[in-house]
Amino acid sequence: MPNLHLAFLWHMHQPFYLDWEKGWLALPWVRLHAVKAYFDLPYLLSQYPAVKNNFNLVPSLLLQLCHYEEGKTDLFLELSRKPANELSLEDKAFILKYFFSCHWETHIYPFPRYHELLTLRGGDHPHDIERALNEFSERDFLDLQVWFNLTWIGFGHRQEPLIQELISKGRYFNEEEKNLLLDLHLDIIKKIIPLYRKLQENSQIEISASPFYHPILPLIIDSDLARRNLPYSPLPPRFSYPEDAAFQIEEALNYHQELFFKRPKGLWPSEGSVCPELIPLVANAGLSWMATDEEILYKSIGRHGPEVLLKPYLALHEDSQIAMVFRHHDLSDRIGFVYRDLSPKEAVSDLVNTAKRLARESGLENPLLTLILDGENPWEYYADGGKGFLTRLFENITNDPDITSVTISEYLERFPPQEKISHLYTGSWINANFDIWIGHEEENQAWELLGRTRRILNGLKEAPQEARQAIMAAEGSDWFWWYGDHFTSLFDAEFDRLFRGHLQAVFKALDKEPFIDLFYPIKKPKPIETEESPVAFIKPVIDGRETFFFEWIGAGRFLPSTVGEAMYFGESIIFALYFGFDISHFYLRLDFKEKIFDSLPEELQAVITFCGFKHKTQVMFKPKAKDITKSLILVKGPFRLYGKDAGEIAFDRILELAIPFENLGFVVGEKVNFYLEFLENGLVRERIPRTGNILFTVPDENFEKEMWLA
Per-residue pLDDT tens for 297-348? Predict the structure, then answer.
């Protein structure tokens, strides 16, 4: 039996969630994974000093951990801190929508009270949220605030007296207990970087890096490189900034030096994405090795099997070279997706037996089996957070004389590469191509906006710090991951907003006006459910008043204050939006919240965007204008109508608007989506609905009859 050298590389990563306007992190995943995997895995490893591991720590994650250490916060933490008796209607809707965002089988179902709250809420559709708002008590909301943050606590702190007491108590928590729990979150975060630093100082782990904000380096070098593995996909206008790729690497290494007092020797290129042109950049940065997936190796040399995979290589390009190791795809994925359904004994037995079989089949004297996977995401799906599996794994490695756990650098120092790769294949660890991040209409639009924004800068080193940070963050892979049809989540719209927010921040740092396109969502909205849909023709008097009781009966109604359909931006300007029609006109009514409306600037602008089958029409007006009719503008392509030529509008107690379908340009039977935006100084203050559009069909004379028969 050859001596198997086993290298685990745990990849720890989060995108840069900074909301530039609010100054907080918009999503909680850095904090929630921190109190679980970011601490648990190295903590457990420290109890097995004979076992060596590798950790890839992405600087954008480390930067956000430091944000918490500096006293900064995230939106979910702020809403968790807020006393339950002070929660607004919008706060409650948000909490009901998003405070069940976890793996239910391991985070909710084992805990009766949390499960009870989920059952009480039901689904996350607008009508479910509206019903739950009426049924949840103050105690229910307080318990939900606690349980959402409690079940993320990993095994490294599950035995803390506070955690044991809260789990045992189960319900009817108080505000003091809640705040002690949230304080513990922040205390755990403060332990994480020192823990990794200590393990590295003890030579038990090697810490490698990824480029700072996790960009797909080959696409930053030249987006047209995607054609090498996607020859027939439509691509965006060319984006080619190899200097940005080099800078993302250099800044990552500098940040690691600052935090860990040691410069990394290894690089995990984001998503294992490589190309020949990357080799000089990595070598010039002083790195010794980089890693990617086995499929890249097989496509590079035209051979496959354990005898090919279980050894390092020297990749060459022009006058540069870099050592490379390649992950075993299947065995790495078993840890992430298969072993969670097995007992720890069965899982570890399968891993060890498979590893030893591969070593024997390789015929190599000192085979290296490299297992690379997400270090944070798998453990949410293990019933015990992975403790049983990892404990048994580390014990087995400690006691097995045929297995030597290694850091990648120490293995390469003892057994340097003997075989060369002269033509490194271009691709990623997913299907050996870049299909996830480029080629779809939404992805290409994002690349185009990134390119247009990047062109206003000269070199990154010369740019103002905030502009440099924002454009580098926008180059990150995660935004493109969520565009297109491959993946979706509750937070699609928020990822879209954050990406465009990074680009807007570039302009702000340069004191320039952002492109108007940056204020429009890239993610294609889906029609949303309204509280009430139009069921009859209406014919309101456009005078800004509810002239008679039945004036708006039969109209559709949307209540932004009662649905948790989007990320939290504060209280809505309006109570309700009504919409309807007769055979010739579209009608809109807005009921404003007086106190908020009075505080808004005189130049506040409202923009309604209608999207039909073939064209888009916008209707604009200023609600606080002295003569609101004069502020009314309709824009359809190159054509504009003003004032009474566009339609009728009035504002007294309510705002009422009537626009002829002829002016809008939509025909009978055409499906039309629309949304409303309020702009302050050219910036979107509020979008209604926050995500998605409201849908209606232009009616014919049989509309009411069809509604009656429906």
Answer: 999 999 999 999 999 999 999 999 999 999 999 999 999 989 998 999 999 9
> Rounded to whole angstroms, what are the CA distances from 472 to 213, 256, 279?
6, 17, 21
Is 295 a residue whose pLDDT tops 80?
yes
Q: What does the alpha-carbon distance between residue 169 and residue 167 come to, in Å, rounded to a whole number?
A: 6
Structure tokens at 60: 């954008």
With H, G, I as helix, E, B as strand and everything else as coil, classify residue 403: strand
CA separation for the pair 182, 194 (Å, rounded): 20
- What gap in Å lies between CA 294 and CA 310, rounded to an integer? 10
Question: Strands 556-558 and 289-293: what pairing?
Answer: unpaired
Is 685 within the bounds of a domain? yes
> Quick one: DSSP state of residue 74?
B
Contact 321, 284 (CB under 8 A): no
Q: Is 665 left (phi over 0), alpha (psi -120 to 50) or beta?
A: left
pLDDT of 101-120, one tens digit each? 999 889 999 999 999 999 99
Burial of 610 (0-12, 13-18, 19+ CB in 10 A): buried
- Whether the CA torsion 392, 397, 400, 402 is positive or negative: it is positive
Rounded to the nearest angstrom, the gap between the alpha carbon of residue 117 and the centroid of all alpha carbons in its chain is 26
- Dump pLDDT digits (tens) for 588-620: 999 998 888 888 888 999 999 998 877 889 999
Q: What is the pLDDT of residue 599?
A: 82
Domain with 705 in it: what CATH number? 2.60.40.10
User: What pLDDT is attached to residue 707?
Assistant: 65
User: Mean pLDDT, the chain, as a whole number?
Assistant: 93
R_g of the chain, CA atoms, integer Å: 28
Instruction: Please report the pLDDT score of residue 533 as a whole number.
Output: 86
CB-count exposure of residue 237 (10 Å: 0-12, 13-18, 19+): exposed
Question: For residue 494, is it within any domain?
Answer: yes
> In DSSP terms, which residues pair with 695 in a beta bridge?
673
DSSP state of 335: I
- Give the model's confidence band at 641: pLDDT under 50 very low, under 70 low, under 90 confident, else very high: very high
10 Å CB burial of residue 708 (0-12, 13-18, 19+) is: exposed
Peptide bond into 126 cis (omega under 30): no
Does 531 have pLDDT greater than 80?
no
From CA 656, how far away is CA 648, in angstroms rounded?
8
- pLDDT at residue 151 is higher than 90: yes
* Nearest CA-CA partner of 223 in 233, 213, 211, 214: 233
- Total domains, the chain: 2
Which pLDDT value is given to residue 566?
33
Single out the residue of 31, 38, 17, 632 nearest to residue 374, CA to CA. Answer: 38
Among 519, 538, 569, identify where a domain stops.
519
Q: Are residues 582 and 702 in the same domain?
A: yes
Instruction: State the Cα angle at 290 between 284 and 296, rounded to 5°.
Output: 120
pLDDT at 526: 61
Q: Residue 497 is part of which domain span? A: 441-519
Q: Is 666 left (phi over 0), alpha (psi -120 to 50) or beta?
A: beta
